[in-house]
TrEMBL record:
Naturally occurring in which organism (per UniProt): Leptothrix cholodnii (strain ATCC 51168 / LMG 8142 / SP-6)
GO cellular component terms given for this protein: plasma membrane
Record's bilayer topology term: Multi-pass membrane protein
InterPro entries linked to this entry: Gly_transporter (IPR005115)
Protein name: Glycine transporter domain-containing protein
Length: 202
């Protein structure tokens, strides 16, 4: 039950992110709902398609769809009456990234994938929805910019895999990976940490 609630929390957080992007882009109600949906379940959907997992998770269990609808409605109501709580949303987004990255990695690992594929699938699960959101919003995806986002997921999943290789119990390894992803992302937000860029010589 706790894992399911955490999963729905992650879906809701990403749905709020997508809804806010839709509002900022001045989309209509349907456009906002679409953007919220692809942000929330886009990464997991791509993961399931690549791993040939059928039915796709939100088709097998429509709970995430209800979570998206509720989160979108609450977001629309909130922005109508109150300012957007940016700091709280950044923290919640970091937790959602960590949760989805580790769950995606665990699913790929259970499917017998190579460790590099596990890292890719976990990162895709955590950040893929945001990529779709940014593309539909005509923005450069966050993972292609300097922000420490996908790299936080990669670091946390790598820690998880190293601990698993050292025969650490799965629960402890998952917890350590989750903390690593969330802490890295939150540190990047708090201290404005960014990855270096490379420019061509003049």
């Amino acid at each position: 039950m706790l894992l399911r609630l955490l999963d729905l929390f992650g879906v809701a957080v990403f749905a709020i992110s997508g809804a806010l992007a839709g509002i900022a882009a001045q989309l209509d109600l349907l456009g906002i709902l679409v953007l919220a949906s692809v942000t929330a379940v886009g990464g997991g959907t791509i993961r399931d398609l690549l791993l040939s997992r059928h039915p796709i998770f939100w088709i097998e269990d429509p709970g995430p769809l209800f979570s998206i609808a509720c989160a979108t409605a609450l977001t629309l109501l909130w922005v109508h009456f109150f300012p957007i709580p940016t700091s709280a949303l950044l923290i919640a987004d970091a937790l959602g990234l960590a949760l989805f990255a580790m769950s995606g990695a665990r699913i790929a690992e259970s499917a017998g994938c190579h460790p590099l594929v596990v890292i890719l699938m976990g990162t895709l699960t955590g950040a893929g929805g945001g990529v779709v959101r940014d593309l539909l919003s005509a923005r450069i995806p966050l993972i292609l910019r300097q922000d420490i986002y996908a790299s936080a997921a990669i670091a946390g999943i790598a820690i998880y895999l190293l601990m698993r290789a050292a025969k650490v119990p799965a629960g402890f390894a998952l917890a350590a990976g989750f903390v690593a992803v969330a802490a890295t992302r939150l540190a990047a937000i708090a201290f404005d940490l960014r990855l270096p860029t490379f420019a061509l010589p003049q």
